[in-house]
Design a protein that fits this description.
The structure holds three protein chains of three kinds. Chain A is 23% helix and 27% strand. By secondary structure, chain A is α+β, with helices and mostly antiparallel strands. In chain A, strands 8, 9, 10, 11, 12, 13 and 26 form a seven-stranded mixed sheet that branches. In chain A, strands 39-40-41-38-32-42 form a six-stranded mixed sheet. In chain A, strand 16, helix 8 and strand 17 form a beta-alpha-beta unit. Chain A starts with 18 loop residues before the first strand and ends with a helix. Chain B is of the alpha+beta class. In chain B, the strands form two sheets. In chain B, strands 3-4-5-6 form a four-stranded antiparallel sheet, with no helix packed on it. In chain B, strands 1-2 form a two-stranded antiparallel sheet. Chain B starts with a strand and ends in a 7-residue tail after the last helix. By secondary structure, chain C is of the alpha/beta class. In chain C, 29% of the residues lie in helices and 24% in strands. An eight-stranded mixed sheet of chain C has the order 5-6-4-14-15-16-13-17. A six-stranded mixed sheet of chain C has the order 8-2-1-12-19-18, sandwiched between helices. In chain C, strands 9-10-11 form a three-stranded antiparallel sheet, covered by helices on one side. Chain C starts with 6 loop residues before the first helix and ends in a 14-residue tail after the last helix. In chain C, 68% of the residues are buried. Classes of the chains: A alpha+beta, B alpha+beta, C alpha/beta. Strand 29 of chain A pairs antiparallel with strand 17 of chain C.
Chain lengths: 1011, 116, 417
C-alpha cells in the first residue's frame, strides 16, 4: 500500500537520532526506499508512507508498527539475504544501513494481498481453542490433512537454508554492579556506583542511551534530558572502572546473579562484519549486585478493531516525531487514560500534525500538562472513549474513529460520534518492565496507582529503580538511581560516592490514571468486531471471556488455552491488559487473578550467539594422540571414540573398510601388527596403602602381585555391575600403574579419587592420571619378539626372561620405555609405552625395525575382531551396566577371600545372585558365512509374528578371517546350560539359526600369547 | 548458574567448575560390617535418598580447583548455600539445627558426630 | 450431559458468537468422603482418575490439585511420544501408552493433536550405532513398528540436517519409529480432565494436601487446604514433589528431584517434520504445529525444586544442535523454562503399592513422563482399583531396589526425552 510520505518538514521536529545529511537506500519486499542514517526500519518505512508492515499470526490481519522498541508485536520482518537472512526481527529495533534488504512475513502471495486474510472472514469459526474441539474425525486425516494445513498456515518468518557465515563470541566477566538499562535511573545508578570505585557494567539495548527521557518533557538537574544523558555517558565512558555497552540486551537473570547479555556488535553495520567483527557477543556476567533500570512499557487499550495499521502507542508516536521527524499520519486522534499522552498531542501539534480531540477516559482531569495542551488549542473530550475505527483498503487505512461517552463500569456504549482522522495514538498507562526481576523467582505486587505490577521481594542481590520500579517522573527516577548506586558502595568498604548535585527537576504532579482495559463495541457484544489484547496471536477480549466461561480459570490455563502472551513479544503489551479484562469478566481483582511466569530471555536470542565460537573444530575439540598426524598422513579411516578419534582401519588403494580390516587381522595373526594404543587409560597409584586400595577397588587381589608383574582386574560399581576392566602393573612396592578402557580413563580416575577422599580417608595413596603423558603401542603377532629384538635396546625379550604378564623398564631405540607383555589380541604381544614427546620417534623406529618382518599397522576394528576371536569382553559391548562378572564368565577374577570390595555386597542381592541370568556364550551360525547382526535377539520360540519372547541378544558379531567363519558373543538366559543348543534369531529377512558354543573361539589354551 | 566456594582451597567458581556428588552423609554399610548387611539395608544405602524441598546436605568436588571433595548445605528452593564444610566433617551446629524432616532425624541420630 | 465437541458444535455456536459453550469441567467443592482420591492434577493423575471411572466404574472419586491442571511437567515438557525402549518392561508400558495416544482424541472427545510424525534417533558413534541396533531388534520382536535407516534416508526425512561424514560426530545411521511423534501437552491434561469430569470425578483445583492420616498401617484420609477428606485409597501422582508428599505418610522414596529444562524458538515456517534425537550430544528437536522449534536436553545434576535451571545445560544442547542443524544459527530462542523431574536410582518409574495399606504411588518418570501418561494412568488405575499391581506395572514395584531387579535404560537413551 503506497501512502503519502510522512517525514515532517525539516525544522519542525528535533529529529534527534537521524542525520539528513546521510541518506541511505534500503529495500522492503523488493521495493527500493530511502531513509536517513539513524532511522530504524520502522521509522524509515513510515517515512516512506509504508504503514503496512506485517500480518498477524492467526487471522493474517494487516498490521503496522504499534510501538517503537522491544515491545513491538506487529512489525516483524525478515532481514538479510541468503545465508544471512534472519526472520522475526522487530522493525522498530532494526537500524537501517545502506543496502539493507527486508521482507515482510506470513503472507501469500504478498503483503498487500494475502490469501491468508480469508481466515479473517471465517474467524467466527476459530474461537479460542477451536482446534481442541474438532479435526478429530477421522483420526487418519489429522496427520494427513488437517495438521499439514495448520502447519503451513502457522509460523511467521522463514529460516535461512545455508550455514551461518557470521561469527559469534562469548565473554565471561565478574563485576560489582551490573546496571540493566541506560535510561536516567540506570545512568544515575551506574554513576553513583562508579563514583564509589565499584567495577560497573552499564548495558542498554538501544544504540543510544537515555531511554525515553527525551520524550518526558521534563528537565533533569536543570538540564535538558539529552544534555544530562550526554554528560553522564561521557563521564561513565571516561571512568576506567566502568564498562559502557550499548546495543546490549540484558536477556536473562539466573541463580546467584548469573546474568546473560547479548551485544549486537555488527548487525547495524555490515562493514564491521566484513572487517571480521563478530555479529553478536554473548556476555556471561556474575554480578555482585544487579540494578534493574529497565524502564516501563506503555500498554494499549482494547476496543473494536484496535489493531488497525495507524493505531499506535502514544509514546511511540511522540518518539517517531521527536527522534526521526516522522509522523505516522496527518490527522491524529489521541485516546488516553493518563496525562502522558498529552505530551504526544503537544509534540504533534508543534510538528505541524493536526490533532483532533484528545479523548480522555477520565471525567475530569487537571494538571500542568493538561493545561499546556489546552493552551496549545488542543480540544479535549473528557469522560469519553474511542469505541471503534472506520477503515478502508481492507483495514489498511484509517478514515475515522468513533468516539462515545464513557461511564466507568456502566458497560455498553450507546451513542457515538464520528471524527475523521488517519491515525490514532493510544495510551492505557504503563507497565514496569519487571521481566528480569521475575526470571529468577522475584515476587511482584500490584500497584493500584499504576494499575500494574511492580517489584516486591527477591532472594537475590537485585534492586529495581526508576520506571521499572514504578516511578514515572524523572526526578524520582534519578534519585532512586543515585540511591541504589550508593547502596552498593555502603554494602562494602569502598569510598563513599559523591553525587553530582541533587536531583531537582521541573517535576509536575500528574492527574491520576483511570484504569480502562476494554471498551466494548457498540451494539451486541463482540459481534463482527474484534477487541484485540494480544495482537500478534490475535487473542481478543472475547477469547479471554470464553476461556473463563469454559472453566480455564487460572490465568495460566487462560494463557495456554487462548495463547495470550505466548507470541514473540511474550506479552509485553498484552499480559496486564489481559488480566484487567479477566478481572472484569470474573469480578475478581487483578491480584486475585495473579500473573503468569516471566521466563528468559527478555527478547529472543539467536542460537548462533548461544553456540558462540564453539562451532566446527571448536565444538568438542578432538583429543589427539602423539601419532595422530601419522594416522592422517597414512589415510586412516577414523571413528569417534569418546572425545578421541581413533583409526578404525587403514585402507590401502582401492580397499574398502572390510577388506582393510581383514588384511590387518591376518597381518597380526600371521606376521606382526602395530597399534596405537595411546588412548588406553593410564593411572599411576602410589603410596604405602596402594595395594590395599586396589584390593578394595578391584574384585580381585592386587596387594599380592609381585613387583614387575601384571594382572587383569575387574571393577564394579556399588550396584555390583561391571564398569571397567584392564591390566594393572606393579612398578614397585608402593607403586602401581592401572590401565583402564579408553572411554573410562577420566571417569575411573575420578572414581578412585572419590573413594579415597570420601570413604577411605586414612589410606595413604596418591592417584595420578597420566593417559596423555604416555604414548603406548601394541606390537602383536608371531614375529613381535623379533621386532623388539631388532630395535636397539637394553632388555632381554626372550620368553624365559620376559614371561607373559610381566613388565620391564629400559630404553628402546634410545627412547626410555616401559614394556608390558600383555595381550588383547591373543598373540605374542608387547605393549611399549614411552613419554608422549618421544612417541612419534619410537613409532617410526618400530615401523622401520618391523619392515623386514612385514609389520603393518592395524586399527580399532581389527583389534575388536582379534579380541572377539579370543572371547575377551569389551566393556560397553558385552556389558551395559546391568552385567556382573559371573554373567560374563569372569568369576575367576572375583575374590572369595576378600571381605569387602566395591560392589561385593550387591553381588549377593537376590536378583544378582539368581540362577539363570543372562550369561555370555559364543555362537556359531549354521551357515558359517552368515554373520549375525549386532544386537540381534534370540527368541524362546519363533511365532508366526511378533510379539515373541526374547531370551538374549548378540553383544559382538563378526566374520573372523582367522577362522574363516562368522563368530558371535551373546548374553543368553541361562546360557551356560544351553551349550550345544541351537538358538533362533528372527530377523527382518528371515530366521538365522546359531549353535551355542564356548566364547573362546581361537587358541583356547593361550599358547600364542604365552609363547 | 550456581556460584560455589570450595572450603578446601577457597576458590570460588561456577557450578561447571565443580562436580555434584549427591546426598551427603550416606553411610556405606560394607565399610563397617561387610558380613551382616540385609538386602533391604543394602538397597536403602544404594537408592533411598533424602530429597527435601528446602535445606539439603550434599557433596561436591572442586573439579577444576584443588580436586578435593567437600560438603555443602544448600536450600533446594532458593539455591542459597548455607554452609561449606570438609568431607570429614558434619555440618556446623547452627545449620544442623535448621535441618528438618529426614535430615533432622539423621542429625539427631548422629550426636556422636559419626555419619548418619 | 456435556456438549459433544465437533465441527458441527463449533458451527452451531458460531451462529450466536460462542455464547453457549458450557464449562469443560465442573469446579466442585470436596465431599467429606470418597472411595478413592488421586493427589496430583497432572496428566498422569488425570488419566488415572479417568480410567478409574471408565474401566473400574469408580465414580465416587476425587482428584486434588495444589495449583492448576497440568501445571507441572505435563505443561512443561517437549511433547515427544515414543516407545522405543530396550527393556521388556519399559517397552510394554510405553507402547501401551503410545497405542492409547493413537485413539485418545476420539476416546475423550478432545483433540490432543497426537501426531505420529516419526521419531529418529541418530547414531553418531559406532557404540551408539550398536546399542540402537540392539534396541531396534528388541522392539521389532516386541511388535513395534521400527527400523534402522541410513544417513541417506535420514537426509530424505530431514533435508536440513548436516550429514557431512566429516562432522565431529558424523551420522552413521539412525533408529526410526514411524509411529512415534508428538501431541499437544496441555490438551492431554484438559481432555482427560473433561472426560473424567463427565464420568463424575470431582476435580478440585487449588486444593493442597497438607497431611496423610493413617490408622495403623491403613490410610484413612487426607488433610487438605479445603478440609479433611475421608478415603481409604490414595494414589500419589505428583512427580517432582513425590518425596514431599510421601514423607507425610512416613514413606521414604528412592528419588531425587532435579530441574530439566527445555526451550522453544520463535515460530517459523515448517523446516523439521519429525522428532530428531541426538543422544551422543544430548539434544533433541521437533517443530510444533505453531511453528516453534521445541528443544530439550539434559538435566542439571543437583537437587532443585525451583523450576529454574542453569544455562550451561541448554547452552550445550543448543551448541550441539547448531552443529547438527546449521540452519538454526540465525533463529532465536523465544522462551526457556524448567520443570522438576523425579529421578529414581535406575531412571525407570515406580508404579507401586506401599507398606501403607491403601497408599499407592506412581512416580519416577524422570524425563519420560509425558509419553507415558495414558499407559501409566491405565495400569495405575487398575492397580488401585484391584489392590494389586497390574501385570505391566509389576516390574516397576518399589521392592525392585532391594532385590537389585533394576530396569536400566541407560544403554538405550543417555539423554532426556
Amino acid at each position: 500500500m503506497a501512502g503519502k510520505p510522512y517525514r515532517v518538514p525539516k525544522g519542525l521536529a528535533r529529529e534527534r537520532l537521524i542525520d539528513r545529511l546521510r541518506p541511505l537506500r534500503f529495500s522492503f519486499d523488493g521495493k527500493s526506499m530511502s531513509g536517513f542514517h539513524g532511522d530504524t526500519l520502522a521509522s524509515a518505512l513510515l517515512a516512506n508512507g509504508r504503514r503496512l508492515m506485517g500480518r498477524s499470526f492467526k487471522y493474517h490481519r494487516p498490521r503496522s508498527a504499534v510501538g517503537i522498541g522491544a515491545e513491538e508485536m506487529n512489525a516483524l520482518v525478515g532481514v538479510g539475504d541468503g545465508a544471512r537472512h534472519e526472520p522475526n526481527l522487530r522493525a522498530t529495533q532494526v537500524e537501517i544501513y545502506d543496502g539493507l534488504t527486508a521482507v515482510s512475513q506470513n503472507r501469500w502471495p504478498n503483503l498487500d494481498f494475502d490469501l491468508g486474510g480469508l481466515s479473517n472472514e471465517f474467524s467466527r469459526l476459530f474461537p479460542a481453542g477451536f482446534y481442541y474441539k474438532t479435526f478429530m474425525w477421522p483420526q487418519s486425516l489429522w496427520k494427513g490433512l488437517y495438521e499439514p494445513l495448520i502447519r503451513r498456515a502457522a509460523g511467521l518468518g522463514r529460516a535461512a537454508r545455508e550455514r551461518d557465515p557470521d561469527t559469534y563470541e562469548h565473554i565471561h566477566v565478574h563485576c560489582d554492579v551490573l546496571v540493566a538499562g541506560g535510561g536516567i535511573a540506570g545512568l544515575a545508578a551506574a554513576n553513583a556506583a562508579a563514583a564509589s570505585g565499584k567495577r560497573v557494567i552499564l548495558a542498554d539495548e538501544n544504540a543510544s542511551f537515555g531511554g525515553s527521557c527525551d520524550l518526558s518533557g521534563e528537565t533533569i538537574e536543570g538540564l535538558p534530558p539529552s544534555d544530562w544523558v550526554e554528560e553522564r555517558v561521557r563521564a561513565l565512558k571516561a571512568a576506567e572502572n566502568v564498562h559502557v555497552l550499548n546495543r546490549t540486551t540484558v536477556a536473562g537473570h539466573f541463580h546467584h546473579n548469573h546474568v546473560l547479555m547479548v551485544e549486537r556488535v555488527g548487525d547495524h553495520d555490515p562493514g564491521l562484519l566484513a572487517k571480521g567483527a563478530p555479529r553478536q557477543r554473548l556476555w556471561k556476567v556474575r554480578a555482585q549486585t544487579l540494578i534493574m533500570a529497565t524502564g516501563a512499557i506503555e500498554r494499549p487499550i482494547s476496543f473494536a478493531n484496535n489493531d488497525r495499521p495507524g493505531i499506535m502507542l502514544a509514546t511511540a508516536v511522540r518518539g517517531y516525531i521527536d527522534r526521526y521527524g516522522v509522523a505516522p499520519g496527518e490527522e491524529c486522534v489521541i485516546f488516553t487514560n493518563n496525562d502522558n499522552a498529552y505530551l504526544t498531542a503537544i509534540a504533534l501539534k508543534s510538528s505541524g500534525v493536526k490533532v483532533r480531540p484528545i479523548v480522555d477516559v477520565r471525567a475530569r482531569a487537571e494538571s500542568a500538562i493538561i493545561d499546556q495542551a489546552r493552551g496549545a488549542g488542543i480540544e479535549i473530550v473528557n469522560g469519553a472513549v474511542v469505541s471503534g475505527v472506520e477503515t478502508s483498503r481492507g483495514g489498511a487505512s484509517i478514515d475515522a474513529v468513533k468516539i462515545s461517552p464513557y461511564r466507568s463500569g456502566k458497560g455498553r456504549i450507546v451513542s457515538e460520534t464520528r471524527v475523521a482522522c488517519d491515525f490514532l495514538a493510544v495510551s492505557g498507562g504503563f507497565n514496569p518492565a519487571v521481566h528480569l526481576w521475575c526470571h529468577n523467582g522475584g515476587k511482584i505486587r500490584f500497584d493500584d496507582r499504576l494499575y500494574s505490577f511492580v517489584p516486591d521481594r527477591h532472594d537475590a542481590a537485585i534492586r529495581a529503580v526508576g520506571a521499572a520500579n514504578g516511578k514515572m517522573d524523572s526526578a524520582t527516577c534519578v534519585e532512586e538511581g543515585y540511591a541504589a548506586g550508593q547502596a552498593t558502595a555502603k554494602a562494602s568498604k569502598t569510598k563513599k560516592s559523591k553525587v553530582h548535585g541533587k536531583a531537582a527537576a521541573g517535576q509536575q504532579s500528574e492527574a491520576p490514571l483511570e484504569p480502562i482495559w476494554f471498551v466494548p463495541a457498540t451494539g451486541k457484544y463482540n459481534e463482527g468486531n474484534k477487541h484485540f489484547v494480544d495482537f500478534q496471536n490475535d487473542v481478543t477480549a472475547a477469547d479471554l471471556e470464553l476461556a473463563q466461561r469454559e472453566g480455564y480459570e487460572s490465568v495460566e490455563l487462560t494463557k495456554r488455552y487462548t495463547t495470550l502472551g505466548m507470541a514473540t513479544d511474550q506479552g509485553k503489551t498484552s499480559n496486564v491488559n489481559g488480566l484487567g479484562i479477566l478481572a472484569e469478566a470474573t469480578g475478581l481483582s487483578i491480584p486475585e487473578i495473579g500473573y503468569t511466569t516471566f521466563r528468559p530471555p527478555y527478547t529472543p536470542i539467536t542460537f548462533g550467539t548461544v553456540a558462540g565460537p564453539n562451532r566446527g573444530p571448536l565444538f568438542l575439540p578432538v583429543r589427539q594422540t602423539a601419532i595422530f598426524d601419522w594416522h592422517v598422513e597414512h589415510g586412516a579411516d577414523f571413528e569417534p571414540v569418546g572425545l578421541w578419534r581413533r583409526p578404525y582401519c587403514y585402507p590401502k588403494g582401492s580397499e574398502d573398510r572390510a577388506s582393510a580390516v581383514r588384511r590387518e587381522i591376518l597381518t597380526v595373526r600371521n606376521r606382526v601388527g602395530l597399534l596405537d594404543a595411546s588412548t588406553l587409560g593410564k593411572i599411576e597409584i602410589k603410596g604405602p596403602d596402594a595395594g590395599e586400595f586396589l584390593d578394595r577397588i578391584y574384585t580381585n587381589m592386587f596387594s599380592t602381585l609381585a613387583i614387575g608383574r601384571a594382572r587383569y582386574g575387574l571393577m564394579l560399581n556399588e550396584l555390583g555391575f561391571l564398569i571397567d576392566d584392564g591390566v594393572t602393573v606393579r612398578l614397585g612396592e608402593d607403586h602401581f600403574l592401572m590401565h583402564t578402557t579408553s572411554g573410562g580413563a577420566d571417569r575411573i580416575a575420578a572414581w578412585l579419587e572419590e573413594w579415597l577422599q570420601t570413604e577411605w580417608m586414612t589410606l595413604k595413596v596418591f592417584v595420578t592420571p597420566v593417559t596423555e603423558q604416555w604414548a603406548q603401542f601394541a606390537v602383536a603377532g608371531p614375529d613381535a619378539r623379533k621386532v623388539m629384538q631388532k630395535l636397539d635396546g637394553d632388555m632381554d625379550f626372550s620368553a624365559e626372561a620376559f614371561p607373559f604378564m610381566s613388565m620391564k623398564q629400559g630404553t628402546l631405540a634410545s627412547y626410555p620405555v616401559r614394556v608390558y607383555r600383555i595381550s588383547f589380541s591373543g598373540e605374542l604381544s608387547f605393549e611399549v609405552a614411552t613419554p608422549a614427546n618421544f612417541g612419534r620417534g619410537l613409532w617410526d623406529a618400530i615401523i622401520e625395525a618391523g619392515r623386514e618382518f612385514g609389520l603393518d599397522v592395524y586399527g580399532t576394528e581389527a583389534l575388536h575382531i582379534l579380541r572377539a576371536e579370543k572371547g575377551f569382553i569389551v566393556i560397553g559391548d558385552e556389558t551395559d551396566g546391568t552385567v556382573t562378572p559371573h554373567d560374563v564368565g569372569l568369576s575367576w577374577a572375583v575374590s572369595k577371600k576378600k571381605r569387602d570390595f566395591l560392589g561385593k555386597r550387591s553381588l549377593s542381592q537376590p536378583y544378582l545372585a539368581a540362577h539363570g541370568r543372562k550369561q555370555l556364550v559364543g555362537l556359531y551360525t549354521e551357515d558359517p558365512q552368515e554373520v549375525l547382526p549386532d544386537g540381534a535377539h534370540a527368541v524362546e520360540r519363533v511365532e508366526p509374528k511378533p510379539p515373541m519372547r526374547t531370551i538374549g541378544h548378540v553383544t559382538s558379531s563378526y566374520f573372523s578371517p582367522t577362522l574363516n567363519r562368522s563368530i558371535a558373543m551373546a548374553l543368553i538366559d541361562n546360557g551356560l546350560k544351553r551349550m550345544g543348543e541351537t538358538l533362533e534369531f528372527p530377523l527382518e529377512k528371515g530366521i538365522v539359526k546359531a549353535k551355542v558354543v564356548d566364547p573362546v573361539f581361537f587358541d583356547k589354551e593361550g599358547a600364542r600369547q604365552n609363547g | 548458574m550456581l556460584s560455589i566456594k570450595c572450603p578446601v582451597c577457597g576458590v570460588e567458581g561456577d557450578e561447571t567448575d565443580f562436580h555434584y556428588g549427591h546426598q551427603a552423609h550416606v553411610a556405606r554399610p560394607a565399610t563397617t560390617d561387610p558380613d551382616n548387611i540385609s538386602d533391604q539395608h543394602q538397597g536403602d544405602y544404594l537408592f533411598m535418598r533424602h530429597n527435601p524441598k528446602g535445606l539439603h546436605f550434599e557433596r561436591w568436588r572442586c573439579d577444576r580447583g584443588c580436586g578435593k571433595w567437600f560438603h555443602a548445605a544448600r536450600d533446594t528452593m532458593t539455591m542459597e548455600f548455607k554452609a561449606y564444610y570438609r568431607i570429614d566433617e558434619m555440618p556446623p551446629d547452627d545449620v544442623k539445627k535448621a535441618a528438618t524432616g529426614a535430615w533432622a532425624q539423621v542429625f539427631a541420630r548422629s550426636q556422636d558426630g559419626g555419619d548418619g | 450431559m456435556m456438549t459433544r465437541y465437533s465441527i458441527f458444535s463449533i458451527a452451531r455456536n458460531a451462529m450466536n458468537y460462542h455464547k453457549d459453550w458450557d464449562r469443560a469441567w465442573r469446579s466442585p467443592q470436596p465431599k467429606p468422603s470418597y472411595d478413592a482420591v488421586i493427589i496430583g492434577g497432572g496428566g498422569h493423575g488425570l488419566a488415572t482418575a479417568y480410567y478409574l471411572a471408565k474401566e473400574h466404574k469408580m465414580n465416587n472419586i476425587a482428584l486434588l490439585e495444589k495449583g492448576w491442571l497440568g501445571g507441572g511437567n505435563t505443561g512443561r515438557n517437549t511433547t515427544v511420544i515414543r516407545s522405543n525402549y530396550l527393556q521388556d518392561a519399559s517397552i510394554a508400558i510405553y507402547e501401551l501408552s503410545r497405542s492409547l495416544y493413537e485413539g485418545l482424541s476420539r476416546e475423550v472427545n478432545y483433540n490432543v493433536m497426537f501426531s505420529p510424525r516419526g521419531l529418529i534417533m541418530l547414531c553418531q558413534t559406532e557404540h551408539e550405532f550398536r546399542a540402537l541396533k540392539r534396541t531396534s531388534h528388541a522392539n521389532r520382536l516386541a511388535g513395534l513398528d521400527c527400523r534402522m535407516i541410513t544417513p541417506e534416508e535420514v537426509k530424505q526425512l530431514v533435508p536440513l540436517i548436516n550429514t557431512d561424514a566429516k562432522a565431529r560426530y558424523p551420522i552413521l545411521g539412525a533408529y526410526y519409529q514411524p509411529r512415534g511423534g508428538t501431541a499437544r501437552h496441555d490438551a492431554v491434561a484438559w481432555g482427560y480432565a473433561r472426560a473424567a469430569d463427565g464420568r463424575g470425578v470431582d476435580i478440585i483445583q487449588n486444593c493442597e494436601v497438607t497431611g496423610i492420616r493413617r490408622e495403623g498401617s491403613q490410610v484413612t484420609g487426607l488433610e487438605t487446604s479445603k478440609g479433611f477428606i475421608n478415603t481409604r485409597k490414595v494414589g500419589v501422582v505428583v512427580a517432582g514433589h513425590t518425596s514431599v508428599i510421601m514423607q507425610m505418610a512416613g514413606v521414604r522414596m528412592p528419588i531425587e528431584s532435579v530441574c530439566l529444562q527445555a526451550l522453544v524458538s520463535e515460530p517459523i515456517k515448517p523446516v523439521i517434520d519429525c522428532v530428531i534425537m541426538a543422544n551422543t550430544v544430548h539434544g533433541y528437536i521437533s517443530q510444533s504445529d505453531k511453528g516453534e522449534l521445541v528443544i530439550g536436553g539434559g538435566a542439571d545434576p543437583y537437587n532443585n525444586y525451583s523450576q529454574r535451571g542453569s544455562f550451561p545445560a541448554l547452552e550445550h544442547t543448543i551448541t550441539a544442535l547448531v552443529e547438527t542443524f546449521p540452519f538454526i544459527s540465525r533463529l532465536k530462542t523465544l522462551r526457556l523454562w524448567g520443570g522438576i523431574v523425579d529421578m529414581t536410582g535406575d531412571r525407570s518409574p515406580i508404579i507401586s503399592k506401599t507398606d501403607v495399606v491403601g497408599l499407592y504411588v506412581n512416580c519416577g518418570w524422570g524425563t519420560g513422563g509425558f509419553k507415558s501418561i495414558p499407559g501409566s494412568g491405565f495400569v495405575f488405575a487398575d492397580t488401585i482399583a484391584n489392590g494389586r499391581p497390574h501385570k505391566i506395572a509389576e516390574p516397576f514395584a518399589l521392592g525392585r531396589f532391594a532385590e537389585g531387579r533394576l530396569i536400566d535404560e541407560s544403554v538405550s537413551a543417555a539423554v532426556a526425552h
